[in-house]
């Protein structure tokens, strides 16, 4: 398609809240509707980012037969983004000599731990129901997702100080009704993105790092996009979709003519934003520590198996989340001699101790590991070093671009009222953007953003025969707002 054609008909819904144009399959999942307009050659689409948003967008684009999408993902083993898991059969990287004998005894999730189905996304609710029916996800047993807090924490600071002295903490269940159902991937959270890809006709290129400096180039001569990695051309594409964020997405688009898109991809890294939301997309950072303990350890004693699978830590500033992976994934192995746990740090802690995430220095690994384990001991009021001295093995990872603490909220109506488009699209340059930061900091937000962008691209190509005077760039007018759930929990996409 030429740029002049793209200038027509690319903002079908720019001046109104997003409206679904999908049909529904027998399984309940919607797909973009087919068109009766004249046949045209399918357009190639490069989707950069193989997380939930990118895989979902590619799936719905491919279902329409108007597009031939290819997803490029940096994951060495498989796609997933925040929904990543380690499996016992995983082979270590060539430069990693560690075997992790004990950690390999169980599946473990080192990022997202919980999936919920937000009521404001009915399409995603239907998808969650389908995944549950197919056995891809399972419900956490009622009452096993909890808050860990000091006793009487609502009775003021003085009472909390007394609790500290007396050694009191409480485990308060939060998934206690049908209205608060929470899920995990039956074979790890990584099984969710694999299910999306399996149900998709889109191609997937794994372990591909599109260079941030010159990996994406817009060719004015033919209005197409050239992608490169490691000095090799990945292909020439009619369109691209940016389905990730952080410094790489910022740099990838910085030298392209899609300036309005790039302005919103510029990023800050901080644990919080001002109440008004800030001026740029802001991502926090989180440390993820997975460690193995012998069975009948102190955690097993203070957090009984039938009452705790995972929980939000509210009484220790270094931590935000604690999860027992073996209780989720080895319920059929009661005689297992090793327990695997994961603890996620708070964003302020990660900022204070931030280091190059690809190559964490040994001294940083040792120090951060020690501090996080001390935080677990403090939160649960167990004797110092009781847990630390029992650790058989541990693995530390810095999740550098973790969770968006603000979300872009578009203004699209004639009266500048707020709407939830959930994506960006530049029809002049054939580029779209999707991700949870454009809708809601959650797995559901990422899935819904990818779906909405795909449906918009389908609707735009079907409407391209009709001249229009609407703008070619969609979603770029608006403001960032603080994400309440991310600010409250510190790990918004997990709750």
From TrEMBL:
Signal peptide: none annotated. Residues 20-37 have a biased composition (Low complexity). It comes from the Eukaryota. Residues 1-40 are annotated as: Disordered. This is Inherit from COG: fad dependent oxidoreductase.
